[in-house]
Write a structure and sequence with these properties.
Layout (H helix, E strand, L loop, with lengths): L23 H24 L3 H13 L12 H8 L1
Helix pairs in contact: 1-2
């Protein structure tokens, strides 16, 4: 697949191609590949501070051996003191 429309249209995405041949290996690959493909977008949104994405990443980590780094919200008072 080619994302093409990212930014000013000068990027190309590698895409995600999976051969569906009915084997157990293909089933495992599908479960992992599709999950990681979707969770990459969720991870980026969680790092941007989106509360729903943070919650989704936490739930995914609980069910998938905790592989996504989840941001912690900064106490605004601490941040204000650091920036003074």
């Amino acid at each position: 697949s080619n994302g093409g429309g990212v930014g000013i249209g000068r990027s190309s995405n590698g895409g995600n191609g999976i051969l569906l041949d009915g084997t157990d290996k293909a089933d495992r690959t599908i479960r992992k590949g599709l999950s990681w493909d979707v969770m990459g977008g969720v991870a980026r949104r969680s790092w941007a501070g989106n509360d729903n994405a943070i919650e989704t990443a936490k739930i995914w980590n609980d069910n998938n051996q905790g592989r996504i780094t989840v941001p912690e919200k900064v106490d605004p008072k601490i941040l204000d003191n650091l920036l003074k």
